[in-house]
Amino acid sequence: MIHTYSGKTIRFDIKYKNRTSIGMKIDSYGNVEIQAPKGTPNERILRLLEENWELIQQKLKEIEDRFHGPQKKVYEHGENFLFLGKTYPIQIFQNKNLDQDYVVFEGETLHIHVKQLEDENIKQALKRFYYQQCKALVEKSITSYQSHFKTKPRSIRITDSKTTWGTCDSRQQLTFNWRLAMAPREVVDYVVVHEMCHMVHLNHDRSFWRLVGKIMPDYKEKEDWLTLSNWKMTV
Predict the structure, then answer these.
(1) Which helix (H) or strand (E) holds 223?
(2) pLDDT tens across 154-167, in order?
(3) Order of strands, edge to edge, in the sheet holding 109-114?
(4) pLDDT digits (tens, 9 = 90+) for 89-122
(5) CA–CA dist 22, 63 (Å, integer)
(6) What SS3 class is residue 235?
């Protein structure tokens, strides 16, 4: 079916089921499906769509952007970068007397202070900021969840991995991807719990996933966030 509202048109499917309430879901390909009790009037279905219209449009835009892949970043005022799961604009300030370039999060803006107004300087300042933030987030999360484990990590490193969010070796040495600082705090917590569980079970067997689920029952939602959002976690 097709419905137009506020100048936008979407296609959606309706599935009538033996249920007592009406619901909506959007899959990873942007297919909108309404699940409704048998006999639900069309007016009620359209009202549900319109009540959630802004959310639907936002979700569809995110899916479209994901399929197009990451866009090349520009290092100028107003460009958006992810931090803790949300996007924030950057403001760039030049100070030729700086010993080292740096970034601070102020209000709703990432303030980038650099000695030279070069793209590479701005990019490296951002990466350094994310490294520092990731280390602090990971250490805080490990402290929060340590009570679930008998052993402690022997070391913690922040790395620039292209393939993994975190690792744990047989010596309980943990590494984490600096890009995690772009994810929501609860997603960082999941990756930390995941790797700490490898201190008990090195592989991904049933015992491992049972332990993860015991500590964090909704871990699948965090995995889904990473799967759907990793394409935009970049500088």
Answers:
(1) helix 219-229
(2) 999 999 988 899 99
(3) 80-83, 86-94, 109-114, 102-106
(4) 999 999 999 999 999 999 899 999 999 999 999 9
(5) 24
(6) coil
What average pLDDT score do residues 121-142 get? Answer: 98
Sheet with 32-37, side-by-side order of all strands: 2-5, 8-17, 32-37, 23-26
Please say whether the beta carbons of 89 and 76 come within 8 A: no
Report DSSP state, residue 187.
H
CA atoms within 13 A on the CB side of 93: 13
Q: Which two tokens stand for residue 46?
A: 């359209």
* Contact between 39 and 19 (Cβ < 8 Å): no
* Amino acid (1-letter code) at residue 117: L
Whether the Cβ atoms of residue 110 and residue 164 lie closer than 8 Å to each other: no
Largest CA distance in the chain: 72
d(CA 226, CA 100): 32
CA separation for the pair 23, 62 (Å, rounded): 21
Which pair of tokens denotes residue 56? Answer: 């639907």
**pLDDT band at 69; cut points 50, 70, 90:** low
Residues 6+ apart with CB under 8 A from 68: none
